[in-house]
């Protein structure tokens, strides 16, 4: 008897011994308990309890009489019924668990989590990449990049913009080739690992821990907006001084969507410098009232002043109104942008 068959039946709710008896009973058209005892090597007293359980689970039927005769229910009938029951149970469980999740208690403390172990860190990073819908910022050494490259390619294929900062600068050509297929790439000096998805979630590893992830390394996972913004500024500042590999905007990729407004501004300015009329759609909030607002128009000017910390775009709407939009933390501009979409 194949051990795989027994294990598969265990997955359908039988014990190992119950599965053994059910398979033995299938080899008979019908059988008495003594016949099963000789076939399986189990004591008669033990078989009574097992057959009773199999009857309750719908795998066996009993014919009254002296002696009692047992028959196995056809596999396709009983297994299809089990699958239907499991499907209904799954729906009930999912519905109940989602209700629990909707009513979950939320701590007032900022959501900051410590993830230990390289395997867990990589699994968390892959989940963030999988869930990204608009853009991904990644600062990584080449071993960690290679561990994430497959998920990055999948994200790229579904239209997510990916910005990859690799370090150190001495990177194998094969890795650079993979990176340029996944996104826009720059090479920088040794740095921290930063992965930001849609400006809403971030995994961070301090650079001194990158070589000891298997031993005592850990990462920080956060969705706290101020912390994500802090790590984003860290990424952008390093991005600005790193060596370009293929960081020019591909005109054929337009329209493009961004949650990182400084990268959006860079691309808008790059297009305007080349004589393009750049259309912009900003979805965000009015900085004074905090009301949700979406505006659409033509980019007339881009300000990128690191000394004053001013990064915004001046948009002229169809009605001729001129509105300045900054990042999600803007307070001087009229609009704080959650997303920026550009096209020509």
Characteristic terms for this protein:
single chain, Arc Repressor Mutant, subunit A, Endonuclease, Chain A, 3 domains, eight-stranded mixed sheet, five-stranded mixed β-barrel, elongated
Mean pLDDT: 89
How many structural domains does the protein architecture include? 3
CATH homologous superfamily descriptor of the largest domain: Endonuclease Chain A
Q: How far apart, in Å, are the first and last alpha carbons?
A: 68 Å
Shape: elongated
Structural class: alpha+beta
Sheet of most strands: 8 strands, mixed
Helix content: 40-55%
Gyration radius, rounded: 31 Å
Characterization of this structure:
By secondary structure, the chain is α+β, with helices and mostly antiparallel strands. The protein has three domains: about 5-75, Arc Repressor Mutant, subunit A, CATH 1.10.10.10; about 110-245, Endonuclease Chain A (Endonuclease, Chain A, 2-Layer Sandwich); about 250-344, SH3 type barrels (Roll), CATH 2.30.30.690. The chain is built from ten helices and 17 strands. The strands form three sheets. An eight-stranded mixed beta sheet has the order 4-10-9-8-5-6-7-11, sandwiched between helices. The protein has a five-stranded mixed beta barrel with strand order 13-14-15-16-17. α1 (about 5-10) packs across α2 (about 15-25). It is elongated, with a radius of gyration of 31 Å. The N and C termini lie far apart (about 70 Å). The mean pLDDT is about 90.
């Amino acid at each position: 008897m194949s051990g795989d068959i027994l294990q598969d039946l265990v997955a359908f709710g039988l014990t190992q011994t119950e599965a053994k008896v059910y398979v033995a009973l299938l080899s008979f058209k019908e059988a008495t308990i003594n016949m099963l005892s000789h076939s399986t090597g189990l004591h008669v007293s033990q078989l009574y309890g097992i057959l009773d359980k199999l009857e309750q689970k719908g795998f066996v039927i009993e014919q009254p009489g002296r002696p009692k005769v047992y028959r196995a229910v056809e596999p396709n009938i009983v297994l299809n019924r089990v699958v239907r029951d499991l499907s209904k149970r799954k729906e009930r469980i999912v519905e109940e668990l989602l209700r629990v999740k909707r009513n979950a208690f939320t701590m007032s403390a900022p959501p900051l989590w410590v993830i230990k172990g390289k395997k867990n860190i990589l699994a968390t990073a892959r989940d963030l990449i999988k869930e990204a819908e608009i853009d991904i910022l990644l600062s990584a050494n080449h071993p960690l990049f290679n561990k994430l490259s497959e998920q990055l390619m999948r994200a790229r294929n579904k239209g997510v913009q990916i910005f990859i900062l690799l370090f150190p600068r001495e990177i194998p050509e094969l890795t650079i080739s993979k990176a340029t297929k996944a996104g826009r790439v720059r090479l920088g000096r040794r740095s921290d690992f930063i992965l930001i998805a849609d400006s809403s979630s971030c995994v961070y590893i301090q650079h001194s821990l990158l070589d000891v992830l298997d031993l005592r390394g850990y990462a920080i996972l956060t969705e706290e907006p101020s912390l994500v913004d802090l790590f984003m500024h860290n990424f952008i500042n390093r991005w600005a001084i790193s060596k370009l590999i293929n960081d020019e905007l591909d005109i054929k990729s337009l329209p493009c969507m961004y949650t990182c407004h400084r990268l959006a501004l860079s691309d808008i300015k790059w297009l305007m410098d080349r004589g393009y009329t750049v259309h912009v759609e900003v979805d965000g909030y009015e900085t004074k009232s905090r009301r949700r607002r979406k505006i659409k128009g033509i980019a007339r000017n881009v300000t990128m002043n690191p000394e004053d910390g001013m990064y915004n775009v001046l948009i002229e709407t169809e009605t001729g109104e001129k509105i300045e939009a900054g990042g999600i933390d803007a307070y001087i501009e009229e609009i704080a942008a959650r997303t920026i979409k550009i096209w020509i």
